Amino acid sequence: MASRFTADRRVQARRVFCRRLLSLGAAAALAIPATPEAQVQTDEQRSAAKLANADPTLAPDLLLPDRDMAWWRDAKFGVFIHWGLYAIPAKGEWHMFNDKVPAAEYAKLAGQFDPQHYDPDAWARIASDAGARYMVMTARHHDGFSLFDSPASYGQYDSMHAAAKRDLIAPFVKAVRGAGLRVGLYYSPLDWRFPAYFRPRELPDNARLLKQQTYGQVEELMRGYGPLDILWYDGGWLAHQGTDADAAWFWEPDKLNRMVRRYQPKIVINPRSGWKGDFDTAEGPGPITGPIRARPWEKTFSISRTAWGYTRDDNVMSADEVIRLIVDAVIRNGNVLANMSPDPDGVVPPKQVETLRGVGKWLKAHGRAVYGTRPGPLQPVDGVYGTTQAGNSVFVHVLSWQGDTLTLPLAGPVAAVRNLSGNAVEWKRVAGGLRLSVPASAREAPVTVLEIRRGVDRGSLAATP
């Protein structure tokens, strides 16, 4: 009994030490000096801008085969949800770090987090009405607070032990499935409460706790909510430096994602764990340019121009802006994941809903040129047009008219051309291609979509040499 008592005291002392190290170290890590004027980007901006550089030879056997990626490539459009404690101060999801809020002070928000109007069925209806085919929700962001029942959470920092006293992910998963949409969960291994996130080599014991929490929580998510369709990692880099792949030595993403595949063999995984993932990502609302990308990818951005998490302003993107990004993505082999930001009570701001409804209205009329298509056969011309194709049809997405007509370098028989809006369109075979003409009054903003039906001989419509 004496030896057992001594061992218990050692364990207790170790826990006390780790807690003190965590609270003191996290406060020090967050108390960084003011950003010099010469620095062009904040850590938040650099997080969005960082590129994936995952080793392509790392765990290629974990990649999904094409048949298991088909639904995701067909879906084209999803709705993201950023929601958590950061909705209460309404200063964005990076509030804790950007405003240097000590971890213990920030954690007091959990005592206020009890959303009375949280209705995931309503969220799913918003996404469905927007024409989305999948949804992704933040199960845990960089602040470390989890929206699910998480025994693996350090310090029981989850919604079960907050004022909400309930798991908020379970009803979300049920609602999304009930709406006939695919369901995804976002998880960030980054946790600002841990000083070892910023100094993993110098603080190995604290680093071990951070990594242990990550593996434990990912396992809880993968085994606790039935079949899931998407795992959306974020924050895999260390100390806000380098890239996610640069931190692979610490997170061991091949090992982490092998565990994921054991529970969810067909889940689609993004590349932000340091492993290359099943698709590439691009973050932010900047314009999409260039040729068709060889690998499936996803453009993700927030409808709010201010932040991903809730803020009180109404500075939101218009439906036309979102539609333009959808078009520019799909003609280049991409999807779009557009974020909405519920308030602390669980209500999505009306102007964000209005934007999404506008997107849904457009997709209802033009969805056949988006869903289930693949890019091509023509390479896009930036700011002018791009093409998608499905079955016997080629869809031309005209972004701007450089004159009265548009000549496409398409070879092969054509049976008919129609304007998906129902408005007039004229077409004619000319040397080197197909000439299209739509009266100025019949052109649509932000894009005119024309369907070219292949000829009766089912010959391929291809780019002319």
From TrEMBL:
GO terms for biological process: fucose metabolic process; glycoside catabolic process. Its EC number is 3.2.1.51. Residues 1-28 form the signal peptide. The keyword Hydrolase applies. Belongs to the glycosyl hydrolase 29 family. Alpha-L-fucosidase is responsible for hydrolyzing the alpha-1,6-linked fucose joined to the reducing-end N-acetylglucosamine of the carbohydrate moieties of glycoproteins. This is alpha-L-fucosidase. It comes from Sphingomonas spermidinifaciens.
